[in-house]
Amino acid sequence: MKYDIGLVGLAVMGENLVLNMERNGFRVAVFNRTVSKVDDFISGRARGKAIKGCHSLDELIRSLAQPRKVMLMVKAGKAVDDFIELLIPYLEKGDIIIDGGNSYFPDSIRRTKYLEERGLLFIGAGVSGGEEGALNGPSIMPGGSPAAWERVKPIFQKIAAQAPDGSPCCEWVGSDGAGHFVKMVHNGIEYGDMQMISEAYWILQQGLGLTTNQLQTIFQEWNKGELDSYLIQITAEIMGKADELTGQPLLDMILDAAGQKGTGRWTSQEALNLGVPAPTVVEAVMARAMSAVKAERLVAATQIQGPAGRRCDDPASMIEKVRRALYASKICSYAQGFQLLRTAAREYHWDLHFGQLALLWRNGCIIRAHFLDKIKTAFDKKPDLANLLLDDYFKSVVESNQTAWREVVAFAVTNGLPVPAFSSALAYFDGYRSARLPANLLQALRDYFGAHTYERVDRPRGVFFHTDWTGHGGKTASTTYNV
C-alpha cells in the first residue's frame, strides 16, 4: 500500500498535522531523525491509524505514491537545507518537497529555484494556528512552484480550517517565497496584536487598579463586539486560570520576560528594506527586547523615578476608551501589514490578492478575527486600495475613535506606563493623514552636511537641488537615491 504524503519531523506541529491528515482520510508515512520518536508516536497517538512509521528516508520515499510529496516540519534554516540534500537522491522528476516551518522567505525563493533546476518542485507553506490549529485545522499559506499546487491542494484544503462560509482557510498565495512572506507578515501583525492587548491590560490594571478577575470580565465582554478574535478570547481565558500552587491568578505569577522566534524581527527588517512604515510591528518586537532585560529593569526601578501620575475619576469611561484605542490601533497595525504586502508584491513580482489573504486568516490562525471580513470587503470594493485607512469603514472607525485613543495614550504617558504599540500606531495614523511633515528640515540638514540635495515644493517631483549653505562649499552634490 502506498501512502499519500510523507512527513519529516515529529515535534508538536508535525505530530498534530499527521493526525489531522489521517483523520481527514489521508494515509501518511512519517520519519524523524531521532528514530525512537517514530516508534513512540506509532505506539502512542498514532496507534491503529493509517500512519506508517519509517526508520529511514529511503523507506519513507519508497512508501509514497507518485508524484511523491514530502513535508518537512523541522527547524527553519540549515536543518531544512540538510534534509533537502538528503532527500534529493531518492526523488524523481515532478516529486514535491514541502517546507511547512517558519522559514525566512528568501530561503524559499532560493529553494524553489534550486529544486526546479533539478526537475523537482518546492512549496514553502506558512502554517499558523499552533498545536490546536495543526490538529484541528490551521490556516495554510502555500507558495513556491505553481505546478505543485494542484497536487497538494486536495490535502491542504481538506486539513485546513474552514471559514464560517465553509471555504477552506488555504489557497495558493504565489510563486517562490510568497507563502512564507505572507506567513511572516501574519506573524508580524500577531506581534502587534499581542503587544496592544498587553498594553490595554496594563493600562487597566496599573492605571485603574483593576484586578485580574475584573479584567477577565472586561475582555469577555470585548470579545462579544468588534474586537471579537482568538487572541481576545484566550486573553480572557488566561485571566481566569488559577495558579495551582498559590490559588492566585496564574497570570500574576508569570515573569514579565517575553521570548521571540524571529518572525517579528524579519517583518521589521523587511519593512526597513522596502522602506514601508511599519512602526507598530517594530515597537512590538522592541517591547519584547525591553522585557528581556529584566535584571537591568529591576535595578533601574530602584534608581529612576517616573511621574507621580494622576487618578482616573471615571474608570468606566476609561475602560471604554481603552477598548476604542485598542480597536483603532489594531486597524492601523493591519494597515501597516497590508501596506508591506502590497510593496513586496511589486518588489518580488507576486500576484497577491489581498482580500483573499484576509480570508485565509479568518479561522485556524492566531490572528483570526471577526473584522477580517471587513478587510475582504474593502479589497472587494477597491482591489488597488493603497491603505486600509482610505477605506470608508476603517476610516470612519478610526476617526470616530481617535479622541478616546489620544486620551488613553495621554493617560498612559502621564502615569508613566509604556505603551509603544498604542503610541506608534497613533503616530502612524497622524503621519499618514498629514499633507506635510517636518521632513523638509530633515532633508535640508542632509543637504547641509552631506550635499544630499532636496526637491522643491514649486518644482516637479524628481528634480533635485543643492544649496551651498555655508558659502564655502562647492557645486558638487551627492548622488540621489532612496533605500
Give the mean pLDDT. 95
Helix/strand/pairing category: alpha/beta
Question: So what's the overall shape?
Answer: globular
Strand content: 5-15%
Biggest sheet details: 8 strands, mixed
- Main sheet: strand order: 3-2-1-4-5-6-7-8
Question: What is the terminal separation in angstroms?
Answer: 56 Å
The number of distinct β-strands equals 8
Order of helices and strands: EHEHEHEHEHEHEHEHHHHHHHHHHHH
Residue runs with pLDDT of under 50 for 5 or more positions: none
Question: Can you describe this structure?
Answer:
This protein is 53% helix and 7% strand. It is α/β, with parallel strands linked by helices and 483 residues long. The chain has an eight-stranded mixed sheet with strand order 3-2-1-4-5-6-7-8, with helices on both faces. Helix 4 (78-87) links the parallel strand 4 and strand 5 (96-99). It starts with a strand and ends in a 33-residue tail after the last helix.
Structural descriptors:
483 residues; alpha/beta; 53% helix; 8-stranded mixed beta sheet
In short:
The protein is an alpha/beta fold and 483 residues long.
Any chance you could write out the topology, listing elements then pairs?
Layout: E1 5-8, H1 12-23, E2 28-31, H2 35-43, E3 51-53, H3 57-62, E4 69-72, H4 78-87, E5 96-99, H5 105-116, E6 121-128, H6 130-136, E7 139-144, H7 146-159, E8 174-175, H8 178-207, H9 212-222, H10 230-239, H11 263-274, H12 279-292, H13 294-303, H14 315-348, H15 354-360, H16 372-381, H17 392-414, H18 420-432, H19 439-450
Parallel strand pairs: 1-2, 1-4, 2-3, 4-5, 5-6, 7-8
Antiparallel strand pairs: 6-7
Helix pairs in contact: 1-6, 8-11, 8-12, 8-14, 9-10, 11-12, 12-18, 14-17, 14-18, 15-16
